Amino acid sequence: MKKTKLYFYFCLLSLVFSVLSHSQSTANYNVSVTTTWNASDHGSISDNDLPIDPHWSPLALVTHKNTNEFFQFGELSSQGVQDIAETGSTSSFQNEFNVAKDSGNADQYFQSGFSPRGAISSASIDNITISEAYPLVTFLSMIAPSPDWFIGVNSETLRSGNNSLNNGWKDTYSMNLFVYDAGTDDGTDYQSGNTASNPRVGIFMINSAPINGLKVGTATFTLNSTLNNSDIKNAASFKLFPNPVENGRVSISNFKQKAIETIEIYSVLGKLVKRSIIASNDSKIKIDLTALNNGIYIFRIYDKTGNNSSQKLIIK
Known about the structure:
Layout: H1 2-20, E1 26-35, E2 55-56, E3 59-64, H2 79-87, H3 91-102, E4 106-112, E5 122-131, E6 136-144, E7 149-157, E8 173-177, E9 179-181, E10 204-205, E11 217-227, E12 239-241, E13 249-253, E14 260-267, E15 272-280, E16 284-288, E17 295-303, E18 308-315
Antiparallel strand pairs: 1-5, 1-11, 2-6, 3-4, 3-6, 6-7, 7-9, 8-11, 9-10, 12-13, 13-16, 14-15, 14-17, 17-18
């Protein structure tokens, strides 16, 4: 029975790293949106002032591979974009994501509410592991109340084009957010009644009152970590034992007694799941992994100079 179980883990490990040897890099990001919608910038003390109970609908975010997969400026809105822009409902948009995912054009859907409720607010989606095959991010949120207005980012790529830095992923950066009209309602101010556009027009940026073409927020993409095929290798300077781990605890055999500063543990998809400051050159260092689920991981060690080496680790 024990031989059969060990053989299963050996086959699983071989399969996963056979796939990884032909796969592309991944990166882990936090995405946050902070709004700056205010009366002094976007209106006056007349009818164009901020509406009663200004707020934002949930932030709907998708990762995908093709540019303009979910909307395109200057083109007609899909039903999903129209629903978000007019009512804040994300159901149709999620259905469109599912269709794109089933066809291999999209990867992940996320949603987050804004807090506190109001014109000045924020939303965040943390620890998004993005693959090189689906490096584009699109998100939307309704500016409410409004006829059919929304903030959005369309097909923002997180790839930098420089493979020598961060495995080709963009470092932390921010971008301004503006308000767009979905082209499905003829209303011209926050309190306008529902008047369907006939004919509908393409999505456009609102440069007139009450928005006046000014930014209403900032989106920040924070890079947490990256993982590349070259990181998955055997290291000659240390050894993990026991491996596979059965009791949730593993030891590092630091037989060259290097000055180990930090250890990081990643899932095979590149998500950072544990980070510990060690600051030790002991020949044997014990690590508690009881908080981690069973599975296959990448165990990475950094020395005091910043150099790192990695090994495969199984927890069962």
